[in-house]
Amino acid sequence: MASLSEQLDEMLQEIGGVVNLTIEEREEITQAGADVLAKNLKQATKDAGHYNTNRKVGKMKHLADSVETGKLIGTVSDGSNAVGFTKSEDTRGIPHARVAHWLNDGTRRITKDGKIVNVPGDSFMDKAREESSDEVLAAQSKVFKRIVEGERGSS
Fold this sequence. Notes:
20% of the residues are buried. This protein is mainly alpha-helical. Strands 1-2 form a two-stranded antiparallel sheet. A two-stranded antiparallel sheet has the order 3-4. Strand 3 (106-110) and strand 4 form a beta hairpin. The chain has helices at residues 4-15, 23-47, 96-105, 124-154; strands spanning 67-70, 82-85, 106-110, 116-120.
């Protein structure tokens, strides 16, 4: 399988080289990929067992229901979009993003008798990103080609 960089180079050659895109066009392209990754991350969260359908949902949403896309707060608008779990805190003061990283990367906890226990992560976020790369690239490529063909057709 070709690397992401190689795939992007191939896409650029296919559409005729470097194209000047506006920030809005870049946002449209990256949002198409972000939407695909968000859908796959929600499903990966459920598939990894981090979704309890029997749990009563009160003020704290299920982890899979807290996946968001959009611009990062406080960053310069450059056409990029982010995908991740909400940072807003639930009623107990724990952001979903932090919980997701504990589940993905692992953590440590102290037992009642004072022993430190390593809790391994399951890498569900890493796997979702990796397994989504081709689908994300295809979605972005589709929007990119539509934008470029529209520009060529109007000139």
